[in-house]
Amino acid sequence: MCVDKQRKLKNYIDKYHLDSIFPLEFMQKLDLVDVKKNTYLTHQSSNFTHLYILVEGKLKVEFYNVNGKFFVFAFATPLFLIGDLELFHSQENNIINTIFAQEQSVLLSIPLETVKTFGLTAPGFLEFVCKQLSNKLFESFLFRSGVFLTVEDKLKRFLYYNSERNGFVQILERREDLASILGVSVRQLNRAIKSLNEKGIIMSKNKRVEIIDYDFLKKDIEFQFDVK
């Protein structure tokens, strides 16, 4: 590994305190992977050979079902683990989801054999994997479950939890992708955005959305969890 690559790798390890998460054997096998914007890291059903950890950039997690219907599961930001589902799922070592780079992204890779040999008995790593799976399950519950939630409620949940990570001013994804995450149609999503604008909760223009009444949004989300 070249000196510049080693320096970058050490910077990411220090930034995210990965030496406290991964066993020593992982640290010796870590490699850097650069993914250009609008290109793919993995394809659904391709061979599962490495675990990846997103340390810079933004990814889109996509899935096609057996009927060819397209879904967007999540927009991933650091630290996001790719391969945790496959690690504990019987898929004959196949990748479950397609991973697409929304932005220029940097990931760390660990060979699957190293993970299976040293990771499954490492408490720090297993705790990290459990937290990743828990976060994914929680976000899936927030945005795709809730038969009795209105489209507007789902959108408010998305904006509220996204604001916890990205602040009050957000750049929304393509309407088709965001609608897929929320499990609604683009037409329904557009109506919900318009309604929140008219109520003074947000102010949006094109992809840019600013949360104007955060206190109302927060109270409304807390009320949803109290009664649903």
TrEMBL record:
Q: Which GO terms describe its biological process?
A: regulation of DNA-templated transcription
Which key words are in the record?
DNA-binding, Transcription, Transcription regulation
Gene3D superfamilies from the UniProt entry: Jelly Rolls (2.60.120.10), Winged helix-like DNA-binding domain superfamily/Winged helix DNA-binding domain (1.10.10.10)
The yes or no answer to whether the keyword Ribonucleoprotein is present is no
Which SUPFAM superfamilies does this UniProt record tie to the protein? cAMP-binding domain-like, Winged helix' DNA-binding domain
Provide the protein name: DNA-binding transcriptional activator YeiL
Q: InterPro entries under this entry?
A: cNMP-bd_dom (IPR000595), cNMP-bd_dom_sf (IPR018490), HTH_CRP (IPR012318), RmlC-like_jellyroll (IPR014710), WH-like_DNA-bd_sf (IPR036388), WH_DNA-bd_sf (IPR036390)
Instruction: Please state every residue range assigned to the domain named HTH crp-type.
Output: 149-215
